[in-house]
């Protein structure tokens, strides 16, 4: 189940930022974000999302095409990247300084990211040693909006017999992330792919001489590289 952001319960500014950051994340590997997928991520109805996208387009934050979906304008992307920077700095602070698990920080950061100032975000960044990646392995935008490089292979595509280092896990589904971490899978962990079951069956991994079975669709959301 996806995180329920419920933007209709937020202030107008927070709601706008949540829409923009959602479209931003959905268009990292696609030209447009569909209304249905945005609705699924935000936990509200597609008609409500469609109406809000039209208003955001009128305000100049995004381009909304009925058949294609939505994509950000430069102004909308600037806002989204700024919020994303705050979000990932907060997550990093909560894990490094407040003892949170990586499966506990996403919702907390969603509540805080709209409230902190640029000054506080800068102080957090400096205090944390200017990290380039958050605890899930996602790149933290610099203040000028640039992103550090970080492209990884999906674990589902690793051939049996290969040993890989986990560098990134998805934080979009809180229950799935909790399950992954309960198995001992997290950024910084090394695993060996033992086998792929046929017909899109699970992967069997070796984690510290312990077998771990992982569904292929979940393995597709985990980014890895050669150690």
Structure characteristics:
227 residues; alpha+beta; six-stranded antiparallel beta sheet; two-stranded antiparallel ribbon; 8 strands; 41% helix; 17% strand; globular; disordered N terminus
Helices and strands in order, then pairings?
Layout: H1 12-26, H2 35-42, H3 46-58, E1 62-65, E2 69-72, H4 74-98, H5 105-112, H6 118-127, E3 153-154, E4 163-169, H7 174-182, E5 190-196, E6 203-207, E7 210-214, H8 216-219, E8 222-225
Antiparallel strand pairs: 1-2, 3-8, 4-5, 4-8, 5-6, 6-7
Helix pairs in contact: 1-2, 1-4, 2-3, 4-5, 4-6
Beta-strand content bin: 15-25%
Distance between the termini: 32 Å
Overall 3D shape:
globular
The quaternary organization reads as: single chain
Helix percentage range: 40-55%
Radius of gyration: 18 Å
- Largest pleated sheet: 6 strands, antiparallel
Structural category is alpha+beta
Query: How confident overall, as mean pLDDT?
Result: 92
Number of DSSP E strands:
8
| Order of secondary-structure elements | HHHEEHHHEEHEEEHE
Strand order of the main beta sheet, please? 3-8-4-5-6-7
Count of helix runs: 8
Low-confidence parts, pLDDT < 50 over ≥5 residues?
1-10
């Amino acid at each position: 189940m996806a995180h329920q952001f419920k933007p209709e319960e937020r202030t107008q500014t927070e709601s706008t930022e949540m829409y923009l950051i959602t479209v931003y994340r959905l268009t990292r590997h696609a030209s447009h974000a569909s209304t249905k997928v945005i609705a699924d991520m935000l936990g509200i109805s597609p008609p409500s999302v469609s109406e809000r996208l039209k208003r955001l387009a009128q305000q100049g934050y995004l381009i909304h095409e009925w058949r294609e979906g939505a994509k950000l304008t430069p102004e909308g992307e600037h806002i989204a990247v700024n919020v994303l920077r705050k979000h990932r700095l907060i997550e990093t602070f909560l894990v490094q300084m407040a003892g949170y698990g990586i499966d506990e920080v996403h919702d907390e950061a969603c509540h805080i990211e709209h409230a902190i100032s640029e000054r506080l975000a800068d102080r957090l960044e400096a205090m944390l040693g200017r990290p380039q990646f958050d605890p899930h392995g996602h790149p933290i935008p610099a203040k000028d909006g640039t992103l550090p490089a970080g492209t990884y292979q999906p674990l589902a595509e690793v051939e049996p017999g290969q040993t890989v280092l986990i560098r990134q896990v998805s934080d979009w589904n809180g229950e799935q992330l909790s399950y992954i971490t309960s198995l001992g899978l997290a950024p910084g962990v090394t695993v060996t792919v033992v086998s792929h079951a046929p017909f899109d069956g699970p992967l069997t991994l070796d984690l510290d001489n312990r077998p771990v079975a992982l569904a292929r669709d979940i393995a597709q959301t985990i980014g890895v590289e050669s150690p």
